[in-house]
């Protein structure tokens, strides 16, 4: 059985991923957020290796769970509680087949996409512009 979905999600980007003090920031966030916090390793412009390194840095905490955005290969290589799928990602069913215990989120931009994600079996949605 998987742990409850965290209530607060701290999502990185390329700029944050490259900060030399990222481990310190993540440690402080983990102290404040505890098990109610998830880190998202996200960086569309990051190479696969840089995305992997980001995931490793963010998976350092004993209390915060890691989610990986759009990189199922990275999610399989680091201790991951869930994945966030974007518009061009594999379907929810494909991600679920890789790890049935993952929380699987889907990024949506309108009601039709939200309904489709729900039908696919997404556990949660992230709504964007």
Low-confidence segments, given as residue ranges, are none
Taking the sheet with the most strands, its summary is: 6 strands, parallel
CATH fold title: TIM Barrel
Total discrete domains: 1
Structural class: alpha/beta
Which term fits the overall shape? globular
- CATH C-level class is Alpha Beta
Overall pLDDT score: 92
Give the neighbour order of strands across the main sheet: 1-2-3-4-5-6
CATH-derived architecture:
Alpha-Beta Barrel
The portion of residues assigned to helices is 25-40%
Which sequence of SSEs, written as H and E, runs from N to C?
A: EHHEHEHEHEHE
Number of distinct beta strands = 6
Q: Enumerate how many helices there are, as a single number.
A: 6
Radius of gyration: 14 Å
Strand content: 15-25%
For the termini, the CA-CA separation is 33 Å
Fourth-tier CATH superfamily name: Aldolase class I
